[in-house]
Amino acid sequence: MVDDAGEVTGVGERARQLRDEIARHNALYYRQDAPEIGDAEYDALMVELRALEAAHPELASPDSPTQVVGAAPSRGFTEVTHPVPLLSLGNAFDPDDLRAWHQRAAGLIGDDFEMVCELKYDGLAVALTYENGNFVRGATRGNSRVGEDVTANLRTVARLPQSVSGDFPETFEVRGEVLFPISEFEKFNAKREAEGLALYANPRNTAAGSLRQIDANETAKRPLDIYIYSLGYPEDGIALETHFDTLRYLSDLGFNVNPKNRLVGTIDEAIDYHHEWVEGKRDLDYACDGVVVKVNRFDYQRHLGSVGREPRWAIAYKFPAEQLETTLLDVSFNVGRTGTINPYAVLEPVLINGVTVSRATLHNEDYIRSKDLHTNDRVIVERAGEVIPKVVRSLPEKRTGWSEEFAMPRHCPACRHKVVRPEGESSSYCVNAGCPAQLARLIEYFVSKGAMDIYGLGDKQVTLFLEKGFIADAADIYSLHEHRDELLTTDRMGETSVTNLLNAIEASKAQPLARVLVALGIKFVGTEVAELLARRFRHIDAVIAATAEEIEAVPGIGPKIAASVAGYFTDEANLALVGKLRVAGVNLKDEDRDEPEPQIFKDLRFVVTGRLERFSRSEIQDHIKNLGGAVSGSVSKKTSYVVAGADAGSKLAAAIELDVKILDEDGLLDLIDSLSTGSTGQQSPGQ
Fold it and tell me: Does 55 fall in a domain?
């Protein structure tokens, strides 16, 4: 990602600026207790950096502040380890995003499930521990696993019960959000203004700062409030089966649970709930930036699990973004690790949601032309949560004679090779396989936190090592020990840093197979897909040998991903790279897992309905999936079997009408036994 002069520009430069700025604010806030910006502004910087790294994985850096949830505890507080991490939420920004989340969940648990809709508070998340009914400890989220002990400060929050009554476990934890009511915040600031004191920026920042006062007496002067939104643990110890029942149970114990929570049965009802509060939020006495939608049943939640730091069973549906007008000064370009020529807007700086925006994504040539964008146009820009700022539309009525029509470059901005746009694709590409920008981005991605996680090998070092000829591809990293003496002569690399780097490289050889598959940079293969491939094939040689059809048969992998994986391993250069990794001693197998169950249900589709006696519905669905079968929430002509319990209802009626085979629990077990022993020669239905 370089311009004609070879200098770092564009998105990569912005990412480095953000990391430096966030590091400075961390030092001010956590070590000097002298913050210059509020939580909202700080969070916005983090969101922008996270979005940049998500859109451009080649920018990922092991020391990036996006690699942890929240921040490390302050030295002014005792650390508290959370028995169950406080995860962050993925975001939806429009109905299509929310429906896509629902469809992903339905693909794993069936489409017949309830959800709970809750308002998304803009406060400070806390975990509260109770023993024998008494509040004994409260902690901030921190980095999701370790937070700050703010028990004394939380005891000053009026609606946080110091003890509860009713039927409760000996020890349990609840999670909630500490808020500064807007009406009280206005009074608080008015009083400070009358006293000649500096005003606070916003309720959220003030709530966070209040809870982190070293002196609890100072916290007591601030009218904080709290809403409880979940049970941290133990769900099983209280014999509750759903999140909504848990909220009612917590309310009965005496916790302040929001009465505006709503149980819904369809995704349309969840969208309606969001629409209600887009306008309704103005009447709330606390900051709210969206709604949270959660799968209701705990067994479904456990089955869905989490990806990285985000649960699959919940999502935040954010309120619409703020839009502002500015000037499109220029269109610049960077080069991605796959050779894509990525345009981005250079804007006259404008403040949106607390962040100064000077660049915005333009996606591709078609996007620019569909918006009729010219340089020097007045444009509308928006920024919504964890999304890179984008140009929404131009204002041609304000166009002057200085506007210039957009044109894609004919030559790569990094290597000056020809740029082509394949027929049927929206992206243009540099066709030079040896383009230094592509190679650098690919290697940076290979060593990043989510891939091989080689600490100390950032973009500057990668560029330097390429220029000096120490490496020519990602696998050459494992030969850097042969250049130890030369490394010691490079700028800012002393004995300690070189030793640490080489040790980190050596340690990365033991990374699991899924990490290696991520690191290769295969299109569409992220952490989740890599885990599915590693779990199914267990050795990279088996992945290489698999056909696109065999890869697509893995539950959770579609035809587009399967074609990409299979295609990657037909390329001789890619196979050569894997071969070099093998010679270097990089782990290419996944032998620690239990033996996979035989895929006897491959190509079979099941619907599970009714009240089962011996198993829960999710247990049977899990077993079907482990055996290679697909589970659907509705009956169709493509359904192979319906597993029906008592009170099966409409799905059983549909199976009878469509002449789909019906099994009870014993019948399913008999089918498993017969297919496992090979005693039947039947073909899969519909084949």
Answer: yes
The pLDDT, as a whole number, for residue 72 is: 45
Residue 469 CB coordination number (10 Å) = 10
597 pLDDT band, cuts 50/70/90, is: low
Distance CA 15, CA 241 (A): 44
Both 195 and 262 in a single domain? Answer: yes
Task: Say whether both 137 and 285 belong to one domain.
Answer: yes
Whether residues 93 and 149 fall in one domain? yes
Tokens of 611: 């009240």
- Give the DSSP letter string of 575-639: HHHHHHHHHHT---B--SSPPPPP-TTTT-EEEEESB-SSS-HHHHHHHHHHTT-EEESS--TT-
**Catalytic residue of the set 120, 294, 318, 371:** 120
CATH number, position 570: 1.10.150.20
Is 61 a domain residue?
yes
Question: Closest Cα to residue 70, out of 150, 140, 153, 151?
Answer: 140
How many independent structural domains does the chain possess?
5
Q: Kindly give, in sequence order, each residue whose CB lies less than 8 Å from that of residue 426, ignoring residues fewer than 6 positions away.
A: 363, 364, 365, 366, 367
Q: What is the pLDDT of residues 266-294, one digit of tens each?
A: 999 999 999 999 888 878 888 888 999 99
Phi, then psi, of 579 in degrees rounded to 5? -60, -40
Domain of residue 504 covers 454-508
Cis ω for the linkage preceding 234 (within 30 of 0): yes
Per residue in 394-433, pLDDT (tens digit) is 999 998 878 888 889 999 998 898 899 988 888 888 877 6
Is 398 a catalytic site residue? no
- 398: CB partners within 8 A, 6+ apart: 377, 378
Neighbours of 352 (CB within 10 A): 19
Q: Is the pLDDT of residue 465 over 80?
A: yes
Buried-state track 412-439, b at ≥16 Cβ within 10 A, e below 16: bbbbeeebeeeeeeebbbbebeebbbbb
Give the Cα separation of 71 and 68 in Å (integer).
7
Residue 4 lies in a domain: no
Do 137 and 269 reside in the same domain of the chain? yes
Q: Are residues 501 and 620 in the same domain?
A: no
Q: What is the model's pTM? A: 0.48
3-class DSSP state of 497: helix
Return all residues near 297 (Cβ < 8 A) that are at least 6 apart.
113, 114, 241, 242, 243, 618
The DSSP letter of residue 199 is P
Q: What is the CATH number of the domain that holds 377?
A: 2.40.50.140
- Residue 28, pLDDT > 60, answer no
The token duo for 567 is 């295609």
Q: What is the pLDDT of residue 389?
A: 79
Residue 612, domain CATH: 3.40.50.10190
523 plus 498 within the same structural domain: no
Which residue, of 405, 431, 466, is where some domain finishes? 405
pLDDT above 80 (res 485): yes
In terms of domains, do 139 and 288 share one? yes
- Same domain flag for 366 and 246: no
DSSP code for 62 = T
Is pLDDT of 182 > 50? Answer: yes
